[in-house]
Write a structure and sequence with these properties.
The protein is an alpha/beta fold. It is about 40% helix and about 20% strand. Helix 1 packs parallel to helix 6. The N and C termini lie far apart (about 40 Å).
Length: about 240
């Protein structure tokens, strides 16, 4: 099995050889962050949205339950990207957008124009592991979807989410994860892993993110495993849910 994985990895790397060469020359990473990845994310989000819309509607259905005593709902999103989640947030929600990549402006502007029921408070260029610009205990909800696969430190990101949440606030998530190790999906993930990570800006296919969530210091965790039909991709296994501080 290991030999087969290495063989098919080499075949895939050969197909992606131009990208490996551009990476070696230091050209791919800046091109990916500025042009390719924002373009890809906007179009991939549209496809993912069609497949996961019902799951997201159900996930965010109880967002209003976490309004503060003043009636406001302050929400911080880690890895906002093109704003694919805005449509699911309740009217009047005060949104702080954060992303480590500042090159999503065009897609983000289009999403904002479509979702004028929200109040957009701040836009921060920040990694999920370092939200120092956000005061501790200052938000009611933190949202993170299809982001923990790419952060440098999953535990560090969850620690920051806990820090900025007020007591009783909630962390919402929807993430693709590693497949069952006995499945062909896992075999496919193992083959794609190195090239996928290079092409898609650090996205890791084999993270067991549910374990990080279980080990974080949340007082309550509501989590379920599901499969989202994304044919010919290695990212069908997902987890979805929310955790309470």
């Amino acid at each position: 099995m290991e030999a087969s994985i290495l063989f098919f990895r080499a075949c895939l790397a050969l197909l992606a050889l131009p990208i490996y060469l551009l990476s070696f020359l230091g050209i791919w990473q800046p091109f990916c962050k500025k042009i390719f990845f924002p373009f890809f994310i906007e179009h991939f989000s549209a496809v993912h949205e069609k497949k996961a819309k019902k799951q997201k509607q159900e996930l965010f259905r109880n967002l209003p339950d976490f309004r503060s005593s003043s009636g406001e709902l302050k929400l911080l999103e880690i890895g906002t990207g093109c704003g694919a989640n805005f449509q699911f947030y309740p009217p009047g929600c005060k949104v702080t957008c954060t992303d480590i990549n500042p090159n999503f402006q065009q897609g983000l502007s289009r999403s904002m124009n479509k979702n004028q029921h929200l109040h957009y408070e701040r836009f921060l260029v920040a990694a999920g592991e370092d939200l120092h610009q956000v005061p501790s205990g200052s938000v009611d909800v933190v949202v993170c979807t299809l982001v923990l696969c790419s952060v440098h430190d999953v535990n560090g990101t969850l620690k920051e989410a806990l820090r900025v949440l007020r007591p009783g606030g909630a962390f919402y998530f929807l993430e693709h994860v590693v497949a069952d190790r006995s499945s062909w999906k896992y075999f496919w993930q193992q083959i794609c892993y190195p090239t996928w990570k290079l092409v898609f800006d650090g996205c890791c296919l084999t993270r067991e993110i549910w374990k990080n969530l279980e080990q974080a210091n949340f007082s309550e965790l509501n989590l379920q495993h599901l499969s989202i039909a994304l044919p010919w991709t290695p990212i069908q296994p997902h987890i979805v849910g929310y955790a309470v501080k």
